[in-house]
Specification:
The protein has 315 residues and is α+β, with helices and mostly antiparallel strands. Among the domains are: 4-67, Roll (Structural Genomics Hypothetical 15.5 Kd Protein In mrcA-pckA Intergenic Region, Chain A); 160-281, 2-Layer Sandwich (Pseudouridine synthase). Helices cover 21% and strands 29% of the residues. The chain has helices spanning 20-27, 33-42, 111-117, 142-153, 232-240, 255-261, 267-273, 304-309; strands at 4-10, 44-45, 61-67, 81-85, 89-94, 123-124, 133-139, 158-166, 173-177, 180-182, 191-193, 202-213, 216-225, 280-288, 295-299. The strands form three sheets. Strands 4, 5, 6, 7, 8, 9, 12, 13, 14 and 15 form a ten-stranded mixed β-sheet that branches. Strand 12 and strand 13 form a beta hairpin. It starts with a strand and ends in a 6-residue tail after the last helix.
Length: 315
């Protein structure tokens, strides 16, 4: 007998007013809009009938029911570090390899699933890519979730990342101002630089360290995203000529990601990637506390895998 799993969704405040099909496209980015419409019509369970064109409201809940597929391994809950907790906030340090929300590939092995499994009432206020490690802000009530959602979308949150890149910038600080659009010819969930139709995107970079390893040059960069576009730091570093170490989507070969997704990435490609994940870490975040209204700051050091990689001689 086939085993089925159910993915439960609860619409966040920042998605209120979206069409249901567009909401699911945003939540499950690997799926095309045509596939999402088919899912809504055939696999969606809710108290009332929902159509692709239904405008979602905050708190709307529904489930997607599908056949269970083999799920890739992800980090266990004990690898998620708790940085801070009070009645409003839960700040976590997410390990690389752990997706935040359920997707077509991941169901049980997600941070949201882990929170639910231990009875935690907390909702991530923003997103980090699966391979990105570091600080994640969670709200402990729907009211706080709404306030944090507005803060993040309104660019009221200061974020800093540490990145390990291929090559070494000649200057100690530089900026990339390049508009971003979603989708590329090879990868639907990727983004591209699009000066004509893209949304404004700016990132500032500061060199923290230059070093060499195995005959190649690298640098550790502190990244200051001034806007919050998907994959912004990664595509901006590619644009600057210094792609992230380990980046299968914006690195040496855009075909790496497709072959990786099909479990067909050749050994030679792994050698060029140097790391099993892209070298990006959310290291610092500062924002107004939703309860006390005071400014709060949280920090996370570079994790062990990236520290080990950066152990080459400093230049």
């Amino acid at each position: 007998m086939d085993e089925f799993i159910e993915m439960e969704f609860c619409v966040e405040p920042n998605f209120a007013g979206w069409r249901l099909d567009l909401y699911l496209c945003a939540k499950i980015r690997r799926l095309s809009r045509t596939r999402v419409k088919s899912i809504i019509e055939n696999e969606l369970i809710s108290e009332r009938r929902l159509k692709p064109s239904t405008l979602v409201t905050t708190g709307l809940t529904f489930k997607l029911r599908r056949k269970a597929l083999p799920e890739p391994e992800t980090p266990d809950a004990d690898q998620v570090k708790e940085v801070f907790r009070d009645e409003w906030l839960l700040i976590l340090d997410k390990p690389a390899g752990l997706p935040i929300h359920p997707t077509a590939r991941y169901h049980h092995g997600t941070l949201v699933s882990q929170l639910k499994a231990r009875g935690e009432e907390a909702w991530p206020a923003h997103r980090l890519d699966r391979e990105t490690s570091g600080l994640l802000v969670c709200a402990r009530s729907t009211k706080v979730s709404q306030a944090l959602g507005l803060a993040f979308t309104g660019s009221e949150v200061h974020k800093e990342y540490l990145a390990v890149c291929e090559g070494q910038p000649k200057v100690d600080a530089f900026e990339v101002d390049a508009p971003i659009s979603e989708g590329t010819e090879l990868i639907r969930i990727a983004v591209r630089i699009d000066a004509k139709n893209g949304k404004p995107a700016q990132t500032a970079f500061k060199v923290e360290k230059r070093f060499s390893k195995d005959g190649a040059d690298f640098a550790v960069l502190r990244c200051f995203p001034r806007t919050g576009r998907q994959h912004q730091i990664r595509i901006h570093l590619q644009q600057a000529g210094f792609p992230l170490v380990g980046d299968k989507m914006y690195g040496f070969d855009p075909g790496y990601f497709d072959r990786f997704s099909k479990h067909a990435l050749e050994p030679e490609a792994w050698l060029k990637l140097r790391l099993p994940r892209h070298a990006l870490h959310a290291t610092k975040i500062r924002f107004q506390h939703p309860g006390t209204k005071e400014e709060v700051t949280f920090e996370s050091p570079l994790p062990e895998d990236l520290r080990a990689f950066c152990s080459g001689p400093t230049q």
